[in-house]
Amino acid sequence: MTNVMGELCTISLPRKASHVHDGVMAAVGVDMAGVKAIDLTKSYGSVQAVSGIDFSIAPGETVALLGPNGAGKSTTIDMVLGLSRPDRGSVSVFGVPPASAVRAGWVGGMLQSGFPPDLLKVREFVTLMASYYPHPLRVDDVLRLTGAHELADRWTKKLSGGQAQRARVAAALVGNPDLLVLDEPTAGIDVEGRHEFWEVMRGVAAQGKTVIFATHYLEEADAFADRIVLIARGRIVADGPATEIKAKAGSRSVRATLPHADVEALRALPGVRAVERHGDSVVLSCSDADRALASLFARFPEVRDVEVRGGTLEEAFLELTGDGNAPRAEETGR
Amino acid sequence: MSGATHVRYEVVRSLRNHRSLVFSLALPLVLYYSIAGGNRHATSAGVSFPLYFMAAMAAYGAMFATVSTGGHLAIDRTRGWARQLRITPLRARTEMVAKVLAAYLVALPALALVFLAGVTLGAHLDAAQWFEMTGLLLAGLAPFILMGLILGHLVPGDALVPAVGGLVVVFALLGGVFGSFFNGAMLAFTKLLPSYWLAHAGKDALVSGDWPAQGWILVAVWTLVLALLAALAYRRDTGRV
Fold it and tell me: Does B241 fall in a domain?
């Protein structure tokens, strides 16, 4: 991970021209972390929601916190935003405690089920949000960018799910924060709405903002994040670019025609985890498909019709998170 | 960043809350005319009934206005807005001050309307007495603003309307807003309630121009204790709803 981080720092920093950055960088000093979590741990009652999470997110990076429901994503996000205090460990945002970063206006967020206040119109809501921040964007610009301008004169209470989403995105962006934290930002939104949302977010990320989002949609993490932090049962089970995670899960398989194959010998090949035989053809599930292929050709020169199928993120996800639907209560005390 | 916009929108939102305006503006006016209108020459607590009841109904409407403004926090919590606010640079202190200011600003029309009605029924005070009565009413409302805030932290949004109604009616009845029904130990008890001093603000302004020390001490103690509780409730209330 260290090399990936270094690389991202060098690419992303020159792009940044934000007002806060002089201050932020001065505060950060040599340590260029945007968001840094060390041994974050949080329990609710007897349930340990997050058990010792470490990560470091560089300024300008877009990172997905991916995991099944109950994995600890929202708990982690609450601590990053200073909404809850870790039982153990610490988290810093641009080198300062989350509460200080929030107060400085460096942070914008979209929480789950954070609906706009009632008795206001959309434009008023976005104007109100802008008023909290030291260097807000122009309300009209943000309304247009997010497609919320058509809703500007609507009551916040009368919005459909997708419309409320647009208003919330506008509200999160209008403060012009350097870090955007999005907790399941597209939950309950239709496909079209999701596309629009990520379209806007792509633009935001391109401006060099740091974006952290929690999701349980694999496609979103795969398509939008520079890097995926995979969380299950309160722990990080993988951290890296989507390709690396797929590789790490080792879910590539090699299919070949090999009559009368000795299954035991195949299983003993380096890089092979499991073997299935269907008549003349065999399927090798590989932890390291490259090594498995080399040794397959060396040991069995008669092998034909060799096919390598790349693993999907979904396979990686299921493999790395174990039973993704395991109830969290069972994880107590781990 | 000053919080001025936040205060302005808090007031705007309160004034747009028509359901609560019915209770804080219309109801006291209707009650005032229907009850004081038929008892124009009666007396209560030693002063003319239209005058006594004017202050009492003004207090009643203003109690509704202040408790429901503070209590609106329950709706903000249920909608997730209260949590969203905590991840903006807005300070908790500004948020509190905004609620208090907004509550006072919506209480003013509630007071003014019933005062006008009182004048039409012949209640008369000199300028200093009007001023003193208004001052006493505003001071006596402070605990109710805080009660509203605490209520907002405690009840879910859909329970807010009955909770506000119940709280205001109980305090109003015990405090003597609808007339003093109590004596002896019960009267001594009701004198411990801030609503007693609200209900008697008109009489006290006319007779002595002020509350007795007991009134000020009680209102101050209620305000202080409730402010502490409100701060505690705010601090505790960071969880997801």
Answer: no
